[in-house]
Amino acid sequence: QVQLVESGGGLVQAGGSLRLSCAASGRTFSSYALGWFRQAPGKEREFVAAISQSGVIRYDADYVKGRFTVSRDNAKNTVYLQMNSLRPEDTAVYYCAAGMVAAKARVSDYNYWGQGTQVTVSS
Question: What's the mean pLDDT in 8-30?
Answer without folding.
Answer: 93
